[in-house]
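Annex B.
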Amino acid sequence: MDLPTLWFWIIAGLFIGYFVLDGFDFGVGMSLPFLGRDEADRRVLINTIGPVWDLNETWLIVAGACLFAAFPEWYATLFSGFYLALLLILLALIARGVSFEYRHQRPESQWKSWFDGMIIVGSAVPALLWGVAFANIVQGVPLDEGHNYTGTLIDLLNPYALLGGLTTLLLFFTHGVVFVSLKTTDEMRVRARNLAVRSGLITIVVAALFLIWTAVIAEFAFMYLVLATLAALALIGSWFLNRAGSEGWSFALGAATIAFAVLALFTALFPDVMPASNDPANSLTIANASSSTYTLTVMSWTALVFLPLILAYQGWTYWIFRKRVTRAHIEVAQH
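Cytochrome d ubiquinol oxidase subunit II: predicted structure tokens.
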């Protein structure tokens, strides 16, 4: 395997990490209107991700930096062509992060309500638009001879892309609600489990439609079919385990679902990185979009040293904050 191909799969791995980790963050944020019946409930939900949400978002920064360094042509085409969509994601993430830090600064219910609304929107918008963006990348977009995107934002909101966005929205929502059941106790745990059962059924149906449509686009490539099947089986298994009350295994299979699904999309994309829907000759590929061998070599050695340290630190953080969040602790802290 040459270095450009290696870095294509490393970037795929970084996006898997981001979607698995920030995915359940988004799901918890979107669950506020469904599970947050009062202020104590909402604080319980926010506290389940309070120690880790900002750490999870660093995966996006690392993925973006590696994409810029390893595939500058891909980065330039993606961020210029999808500029408005990515700007909306960025603004949503900023609003969400600000809300986590500011909602508890004043006691007024209206103050908290405004920031809760920003958390909900700031979670739902990225969950939707990431699916829209990746679906468009896999399907292909119109590019000119200089690899510049020639369409508009409306062109990105096509039926296949919107189905992809709905898939990620529902998948992250269910993943997050299962995380809530894993991290809480008593009534909140039961309500989260029941909500995940209901949302999981809808997610299975929508995800199946998206995977089948993507199989048609990928011309039923063998490896795509294998990974898509694994994603489907993991999602169904996660639903059954959640219904049986095994939140830990359900969450693990939910993470596996996202991992297999992202791998399937990258497999459907390979060896292109940005297919041109108007003329295949204008497509960006791993070969014509990558950096020099020297750059990729330096990046490889850097990743070999620092990536294990990052993984170890994140694993340690999750271990430290592994205990369940209880409503009793929240109510005591309010007095």
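Strands lie at 272-274, 284-285. The CA atoms of residues 212 and 327 lie 42 Å apart. Further annotation is deferred to the next reporting cycle.
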